[in-house]
Protein: 3-dehydroquinate dehydratase
Organism: Sporolituus thermophilus DSM 23256
Amino acid sequence: MGEKVRRVLVLHGPNLNWLGKREPHIYGVTTLAEINELICNKAKALGLEADCFQSNHEGALIDAVQQADGRYECLIINPAAFTHYSFALRDALAAVSLPVIEVHLSNIYSREEFRRHSVIAPVVVGQISGFGSASYLLALEAAAVLLRKEGDKGGGEK
């Protein structure tokens, strides 16, 4: 019997649907559709399966986080502006029983003061920022390592 394919959910927060148009000097010219394609190709190369979802609505992202529990083995999220103030999204991420990796296209710590604080960071396994679209690919690499380590433990509960 073949090994179970590990599933990863990638969530994109508000305004990321405008990538390629919005402040390209900060976020680059790669579109969200192109990033999603890169994510799916990288996931496949790592032996993972990735699903991607974007919303400009906090509640839709919270619903996606809650629905991911038990359906996915890892969650990667770019909370975008919600990074800095969404305690509701933070609480949803803290409540799920799967590892969460936070990503950002830009280095939030080198930007405006209000962007330098993440309310999400304390409830995630790690954070990758500042590498443009490669931030997502690095997060997938990290997810593969995390899931491999989890599998090495015999697949038991956390």
In short: The two ends are 25 Å apart (CA to CA). The chain has a mean pLDDT of 91. The chain has one domain: 6-81+88-116+127-152.
